[in-house]
Input
Amino acid sequence: MKNVQAAADIVNSRGGVLGGKKFEVVPFDNKGNPQESLIVLKQAIDQDMRHVISGVSNIAHAITDAVGKHNARNPDRAVLFLDYGALDPALTESKCSFWHFRFEAHADTQVNVLTDYIARQTSVHKIYLINQDYAYGQAVRQAAKEMLAVKRPDIQIVGDDLMPLGKVKDFAPYVAKIHASEADSVLTGNWGNDLSLLIKSSNEAGLKSTYYTLLAAFLALRGQSVPPGQIGSRHSMRGTSMPRTVPGKRRCSSTRPNTMRSPT
Output
């Protein structure tokens, strides 16, 4: 929210856009769940707000679906969803929508880059997967398995956990499982407390496994430090090429319906 407001302030200070129009950022609290997101989305639309900014994959799926239905019913009041951080590939593949605009590289792209790097590491032989149990975490898990099998079929996946999103406070049991598996590496798409607490618990237990992450930038943004050598990190995958074709997936080919007008 602070980043969006800061960006709007900068643009407004320079005269705005489209002949002097100024941005107004109006915050709504979705309480981190899809159901509440639909309630505040309706509130925003009822106030004639035509551009919606949000992130997190499970919430983005709900918003994309609701915006599509709204626009079909109200072609003269179309809403555009600006997605700054929902990383589930399906949002621009199997469930793509003309009214959803993605800014961030999705999970397949990120994992493709990360597994390219891992494949070159001769020290990696056993990997443990731990991810959050929602759309993005599940996508990271699937992509990691598929891509490692092609790029380094000799690597063993010795553990595979999906954990509740944002609900685990004690990661010691997960760290104990990683230690027992004798994994030399851990691949995770975790972010926020689910990443920082996992790393903290690993450090406290003296775990020697190297962590390969996609969203370690969250640690830096939270002002947390990671001991040198403890974590192998590849994040902020913007600008990378699209991954190799994954069976059963397609690129978005959605077009704007002829009966609708774009938001102004």
Remarks:
- The first strand starts at residue 51 and ends at 54.
